[in-house]
Amino acid sequence: MQGGYQCEDCGEAVWLATTRAELAWLKNRRHIVLEVQRHLGSGLDGWIDEGLTFLERHDGHGVTVAERGCGTRP
Ligand SMILES: [Zn+2]
Questions:
Q1: pLDDT at 48
Q2: How many angstroms separate the alpha carbon of residue 60 from the centre of ligand 1?
Q3: What is this structure's pTM?
Q4: Quick one: which of 18, 14, 11 has its CA closest to 55?
Q5: Distance from the CA of 39 to the center of ligand 1, in angstroms?
Q6: For a 10 Å CB count at each end of the chain, is N or C smaller?
């Protein structure tokens, strides 16, 4: 399974190499994670960076956490 964020306002989605549960965690703690990231001064895990970028871009929009199966994989 693969998790992602979907913006209902823009119809955009991003799929990341992590689970839906992890993405829900990040979405709920975005401001804390951003502080940690600033403090470290370097990137966190790739999916965290990408997820934060998407959440920042769609701040105030109707972003939902989504999940898709591995049907697209060989
Ligand atoms: Zn949006």
A1: 92
A2: 8
A3: 0.82
A4: 14
A5: 27
A6: C
